[in-house]
Amino acid sequence: KGPSAFIPLREIPQQGAEGSLRQLLVEALVSAGRVDSVSMVMGLHPQYLSSFWKTQRLLLRMDGPLPYHKRHYIAIMAAARHQCTYLVSLHTEEFLQVGGNPAWLQGLHCAPPKLRNLNEINKLLAHRPWLITKEHIEALLKPGEDSWSLAELVQALVLLTHYHSLASFVFGCGISPKEEQDVGQGCQPPSPHSNSSPASDDSMEGSGGRDAMREVEVLMERMKLLQESQLEEEGITQEELETRFELEKTESLLVAPSEVAEQCPRSSVLCFVEDPEFGYKDFTRRGEQAPPTFRAQ
After folding, report:
1. pTM score, whole prediction
2. Annotated catalytic sites, by residue?
3. Where residue 40 falls among pLDDT bands split at 50, 70, 90?
4. N or C: which end of the chain has fewer CB within 10 A?
5. Interatomic CA distance for residues 146 and 139, integer angstroms
6. d(CA 234, CA 200)
7. Cβ neighbours of residue 224 closer than 8 Å, sequence gap 6 or more
8. Crossing angle, helix 134-141 and helix 119-127, to 10 degrees?
9. Could you tell me the maximum CA-CA distance found in the chain, to the nearest angstrom?
């Protein structure tokens, strides 16, 4: 229970905190009308929270070329790319509070073409940023009815990368959507696929736990066979036995559980995502021509 699946609630700073931390939490309350789970967890490191809140204010509430509702919609697009339900739901509320059109929340297909045009660069920035070329930027800046100004695009790209990173923080801290905090269920990152939620207190009882137990049982069985073979093969040394055991253990750990079911993301998140199968792919794969990368020198 609480804002983080990994940190006991009693250790999370509350609104009654003292000194500079209290001031930060009050600022968050006044600015956003709430103290969200990210701020509560970051309150464990007040200096970091202070920097984070300054960044959030600059990106979302201070002067800039993009209207407030579009800033929040871009945040939704970025978070949805990583299937981060916490950030999608948070900025959906913010989007409506600043006057955003509720029809846009039916999905990316209902947003204006100008915002939909960000989809390709959002997808690449989220999963394979090394594939971005100057042509992607030129296409967005090309004169036309739905073109972006350079100032608008810079702010949009900063928002996209900021929320891609923040999604990782949310997953890493086990932060749950508000409606799930009372039942101990957390956000599930889409990759690598797993059957057990990071927020589950009984994760060993899920299929992920069963897979782990199966691997242990297989490893123990192999150890037993090795011991039996040692008895049968006279003259085998302890060093040879240890070598065989290490080999068996390594092979066992390299075997992935079979038929791991992919978790189905919520429709409320997928509606903001086009080409959901697109994900990270190592750009240094052997035997393939590596895409060009920018070099400083």
Report:
1. 0.68
2. 84
3. confident
4. C
5. 11
6. 49
7. none
8. 150
9. 83
